[in-house]
What we know:
By secondary structure, this protein is α/β, with parallel strands linked by helices.
Amino acid sequence: MATLSKSRFVQGRGCPRKLYYESKKKVYRNLNREDSFLKSLAEGGFQVGELAKAHFPGGHDVKTLNTQEALDETNTLLEQENIIIFEAAISFENCFIRVDVLEKVGNRFRIHEVKAKSYDSSQKLPFLSAKGKPNPKWEPYLYDVAFQKWVVSKEFPESNVTANLMLVDKSVVCPVDGLNQCFRVFRNDEHSGVEQVKDFAPEALKANILKSIPVDHECDVIYALTEHGNRFRGSFSELIKELSGICDGSVLAPITIRGDCGNCEFKTRGADDPMKSGFDECLFEAFGLEPAEEGSLIFDLWDYRSRDKSIKNNVIRLSQLDPEDFDALIEPVPGEGVSRKQRQWLQISKFKKNENAVWIDKLGWKKEAGGWTYPLHFIDFETTRVALPFFKGHKPYQSIGFQFSHHTVDQQGNITHANDFLLAEPGLNPNLHFVRALKIAIGNDNGTVFMYSPHENTTLRDILFEIEKTAAPDLDELARFLMSLTSSSTASERQWVPTRPMVDQCALVKQYLYLPQTNGSNSIKAVLPAILNESEFLKTKYSKPIYGKDLEVSSLNLTERAWIRFDDQGDVVNPYSTLPDLSDGLSEEELAELEGIEQITQGGAALTAYGRLMFEDLGAKQRKLIEQGLKEYCELDTMAMVFIHEGVLDLSQQ
Length: 654
């Protein structure tokens, strides 16, 4: 019998059925289990929890994972008049919580729920909306602490219980170097955790990067509500009763299909996955829908904002959608690309017709290309933003650019991996070095610079604001360079217009190109294999080992590579899946240093890899492997942009 923990409460409020699937971990696949660890690792959530304890000296840590042992230890500690307990275990009926920090002062209990989420103490608290209800962005956190306050109040009805959210204040400047590296994350078969590996300066605590904010008013607002999210109507106590009943098996978990179900984590990895899909089971029970063909449901439709309306009308398949709702009767004008709704209808119509042919606005892409200046520069950044800063003078979640890759294409079509940059030296802020290296790479001509999504623009703008506060001798030169490339934020008081604005290749894809194999996704991880499969030119050229140092297509990191490989069905294997496994040949002790980043194939792993490199005691062998993995991953990101560029040129000539 499962208890209603605070994590199950938050999960169940969003979707009660997930409590059932979560209770059968060996039966149903949960795609978030690995992702959540990596995300918390990259952002510093584990470290924030450990730093919070330092704000409560003399606290007692209840470390056991055994429920009864934790309850017994907590109750013994609570016999003292005044006590501070970390991970205090409290139960009431079938509810069981572990409180991050519990202060007991006489008859008063103070709950501190620690989160890595940031807020700005110089601005108005964002917890409630203008209508006085919980702000949707803060709802999960507020409900989490409200549930804890309810449990403690019920278990100790004669006590006065107050609740606080302990958050990261992003307005605070870190006064010391290496705060992040004071804590090391570990993971074993039983659980994940964090340990403090070195002392931090007292100034770090005095800066109050973490602040505990009273949220009793917000809790009272939640307790007074009669609707708790989109799936439950009733009082707060009734919500707890239902979710608790689902956990102990006395209540059947209801199914309510809504637009956000497309993000459900209870999905399988494909037809060969031995585990079950809770998502498929819900659709079958609600609509009699058998496991659907990939890309066939309204959840798969790109940027579709009317999912809830469609579901209410029992419309769940793309084939049920009407053309009138998508401007389908308005033919795209050659040279102008497609609107959002027209692109959606492209996806729907091609699925309905089982048509795999590429759609491309050749005239529109040609018009865009007419404004480009050679050589073309394709850049990609790897960056990180962590809760606890790596460097003195940084604020929480401040941008750090630690790596870039740079490919060029000249007017004759010659491709060169011209530059790359990686600086992950413990204690050394890479931002100024990053910008200087980028200026050397792309600042010597007026060639058009391409990025994939606005991430590069945002990063350079953030770094501009940072370096302007330094006394760098080349500050004016670097600032002019950055402002020539970046666009100012519309929300910023400071405005400027770039003289050499970067081109967003992703935006070009959205407007002028649709590849049915992507199922509507515009992620470069989806567009790359799709365009490789469609372009005979790319398949012929890159199935040969022409990519590498001193080869036809030069590389700074690879000696020889045939990027195109085919699977048993004759389809191109996604090049990202062929990136190296860093764990090959390592001992068990060496493997521990690579936990979570055995293969760097996506951004979360890259952020985690940087964090790992910032530890001075990382083994030389592991450091070299991680750096090589990062370089190959980032190099593929910019080469993927080149593939798209070449592929569109090829498809435009067909």
